[in-house]
Each structure stands twice: as structure tokens, then as C-alpha cells.
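Standup notes
- DV: blocked on the single-chain target, sequence here:
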Amino acid sequence: MQIFSEDESRELFPLSWLSQYGYCKRRCSLLALEQIWQENEYTAAGRMQHKRVHTGRTEQRGDVIHIFEMPVFSRRLGVSGFCDCVEAHPSLSGASIPYGEGKYTFYPVEYKHGVVRDEEEYHLQLCAQAICLEERFGVQIPAGAIFFIDAHRRDEVLLSQELREQTWQTAKEIADMVESQKLVPAVYSAKCKKCSLREACQPKIRHSAQSYSEGLWDEAVKEME
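- DV (later): unblocked, structure below
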């Protein structure tokens, strides 16, 4: 599957948008189309914890090479960004890398702060990282992991065909959104309470205004009948 052409002049969108879109389409559209970003205690905590990871270094632990903040991109998927950590395991069926001798297979690990939770958007982001690595090195990556920093726990994620299809579909929807330049309508939910963009989004007000406008339109149509 291919979302974009492989034209090198085409701008790629941030890989992290897949996670944002999976969490809230409205939030992603505000970030992508309005360049709105506001920080709160939750985003600040996550940024500080990721700062400890994002140092662009490599570490050798036994036979495994740990590559931190590895830059990746996929022109087919239309994304670019960084992998928090990629574990390179020696394998005769793997690919050569500039960080060590021999050949390696890859195991991407995405770092998240907060409590352990099974969030689909995290899986989408991890799968996109794997697709980028597969495209670059010509290998197959069957699994990766989400590492929850606070709990110091790693949960493995199988990169199934279903998850891959969801990742491609999400990337396509983001690409369509960017091309149309249309904000996604606000829909209030429990997620809004902790969202750093709540003030800019105003989901309750916008929803009420939309309902009010639709009501006026319905009344006008009735009068014309």
C-alpha cells in the first residue's frame, strides 16, 4: 500500500501525528492545520521524561545494540520522525547498519509516561516506526514494544496485518485532512478533561453552537415548506 508518491519534494508529516490522530482527530487537526500547541502538567511530564531518552546515542548491551532517537521516514507512508529506541539484534537474515558489524534485525521500542494503558494510538505510532525501518532496511519486523517509564514495564505489541492496515488508513486520513485544510469538528468526551488544547478547542461551546445553528436551519426549512 502507498499513500504518497515517492517524490522527494513532497513534504512528509510528523510520524507522531498518527498517535495524536488516534487519540483525538480534532486535536490532531488543531496541531496540523492551526499549529496550536499548549502545554499542561501531563504534556510537560511526558516531554521531560522523553528528554532523557532523546539523546541520539547508541549503547552496546551484550550482542544487542540500542539506538536512541533514531531518525526514520517513509515516503510511501508519508511520514518522518524519530524512534525512541531501536534494538538491533544480530541475525544472519537481517540487514547491515552503520552502528555495528554484521547483520541485524530490529525491534522498535516507544517510550510513554504515565500509568500502563492499552492505547490503540500508541500501537499505530509504533507500527509506523516499524514500516519506516522496513522500508529503509528491507527487513520484516513482526513486533515491537511500548515501554511505560513510570511503571518501568514493557508491553510487547504484535505488528499484525490488521494493525498495519489501520496504520495505513490513519495515515491516509491525515493526508486527506491536510490536503483539504478542514478542521475536524469537536466532539466532547472524557479525554477532553486532560487535553492541553481544551481551551483552544472549546469542545462544549463549539458543539452547542453547532446544534444551535442546525436548529435555526431546521426552523427556516420548516417555514419555507
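- Follow-up: The two ends are 49 Å apart (CA to CA).
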